Amino acid sequence: MHRTKVKIVEEALDANNTIARANREDFDRHGVRVVNFMSAPGAGKTTLLERVAGDLPGVRVGVLEGDVQGSMDADRLASLHVPVTQLNTDPGFGGECHLDANMVRSAMHELPLDEIDLLVIENVGNLVCPAEFRVGEDVRVMVASVTEGEDKPLKYPLMFRTCDLVLINKLDLLPHLDVEVDRLLHNLDAVHPDVERLLVSARTGEGVDEWRTWLTELVASRSGAAV
Amino acid sequence: MHRTKVKIVEEALDANNTIARANREDFDRHGVRVVNFMSAPGAGKTTLLERVAGDLPGVRVGVLEGDVQGSMDADRLASLHVPVTQLNTDPGFGGECHLDANMVRSAMHELPLDEIDLLVIENVGNLVCPAEFRVGEDVRVMVASVTEGEDKPLKYPLMFRTCDLVLINKLDLLPHLDVEVDRLLHNLDAVHPDVERLLVSARTGEGVDEWRTWLTELVASRSGAAV
User: Fold this and answer.
1) Helices (DSSP H) in B65-191: which residue ranges?
2) Which of B1, B70, B158 is facing A155, going by the closest CB pair?
3) Rounded CA gap, A85 and A64, in Å?
């Protein structure tokens, strides 16, 4: 039974990679940079997006919102007057705990690719499966809240290992926690040495300028010309 | 492709339920009550277990620790001198984001069922898939940290809907958050009206006596006599 199960997963991942490449080619053709944005539930992805999405100099942002159910985050972001597309994994996908390349592909014709420079795909809140499925992104950004504790890089290594930037969020809560950020960073370096990281607080705005700069430079670095 | 995928999931869930029933019969035969203990990563499951596992009057506790990788939580709990069995979903299970009945069954012969009254199965940190797989438990207890925000019951309804007790944890952080616990409870009632809930802080000990009482009464209520 086990062997069969693994085989199914491998085939699914292989098909996923094929579709992810097709997505990536479409994004490239339109000159759109794509961020796969991931975290555990409640780590602060939406708030960190709200902080910058309407305020990136010279960069037109679009958002693809992945959720099991509901459109609360999409509603929050729409108030910033950036185009937001909602993707629910519940109806039709059986309540998937992650986005995959085919789900993103099914939303492709809804995305205003000619009107944006940067697409942020907000994944389902989960530290396991989203890391296994490429969706056509250029980079992966994850949010780790200090409230989750120091040990999470060691317990969910694939997520921390496969991302390009880690936003360590809720820094304002550190005085009220039994958590040492140095130990968290030490564990991060143990699974992904020298990965870029920014210490931020979506609540106080600490580090948000650096997060804004990081995204602006990501878009500036794109090589392909927009069609 | 979709139809095929749904079919596989349904068959897997059906097989899972069959094995879960077999697990439950084994637990019942030994007079052991079983809690499936779930939450998002870093919500405080292990700390809430540490608070009570070695200190339940007249109740012998055992723990089955589910993790993608590592044994940090098992090491923490072993220091309380309760029997702890580690189950990693990474090797052999392909990094699963949840425990299923077959994984628990594979650990059955390692569990000291004749020496315990209560088995707490600490699931993988995830608000989606663990809710879909029964493992043979009597009850489901979940931890929701107030740091995760007020909206989580609405975004991950299956988890909140299928549990028997919700521990609202990290209450000590409320003064430092833009979160109203009343709104969180309102959202909880929207998806699971009148489900039992305890307001707790693993850090300060608030509500821990009530959590201890809840578990003690759960064990006292078992009807089957131990073999």
Assistant:
1) 72-78, 101-106, 152-155, 157-161, 181-191
2) B70
3) 5
Residues of chain B whose C-beta is under 8 A from some C-beta in A? 1-2, 5-6, 8-9, 40-42, 67-70, 72, 92, 94-97, 102, 124-129, 132, 145, 147-149, 151-152, 154-158, 170, 172-173, 176-178, 203
CB contact under 8 A, A42 and B125: no
Calculate what percentage of chain B has a pLDDT beyond 90. Answer: 78
As a whole number of angstroms, the distance between CA B85 and CA B62 comes to 8
Rounded distance between C-alpha atoms, residue A175 and residue B38, angstroms: 27
Q: Please state the φ and ψ torsions of residue A68, each to the nearest 5 degrees.
A: -65, -45
For residue B37, the cross-strand partners are B122, B141
ipTM: 0.88
Among A93, A148, A154, A161, most B C-beta atoms within 10 A, so best to mutate, is A148
- Is residue A168 within 8 Å of A206, Cβ to Cβ? no
Contact A222, A31 (CB under 8 A): yes
Which of these, A50, A182, A71, A29, lies nearest to A120 by C-alpha position?
A: A50
Flag whether A104 is in a domain.
Answer: yes
Instruction: Count the helix, strand and coil residues of chain A and give each as a percent rounded to the nearest 5.
Output: 45, 20, 35
Q: Render pLDDT for B29-76 as a digit per residue (tens, 0 to 9).
A: 999 999 999 999 999 999 999 999 989 999 999 999 998 888 889 888
B31: left (phi over 0), alpha (psi -120 to 50) or beta: left
**Considering the domain boundaries, does residue B6 fall inside one?**
no
Amino acid letter, residue A52: V
C-alpha span between A116 and B102 (Å, rounded): 47
**Residue B181 falls in which region: left (phi positive, over 0), alpha (psi -120 to 50) or beta:** alpha
Q: pTM of this prediction? A: 0.91
Structural domain containing residue B162:
31-220
Domain assignment present for residue A21? The answer is no
As a whole number of angstroms, the distance between CA B125 and CA A221 comes to: 36
Q: How many other CB atoms are found less than 10 A from the CB of residue B114?
A: 10
At B157, which CATH number?
Answer: 3.40.50.300
Cβ contact B127–A126 (<8 Å): yes
Model confidence over A82-105: pLDDT tens digits?
999 999 887 655 578 999 999 999
Query: Quick one: CA dihedral B179, A174, A140, A152, positive or negative?
Result: negative
Provide the number of structural domains found in chain B. Answer: 1
Q: Is residue B82 part of a domain?
A: yes
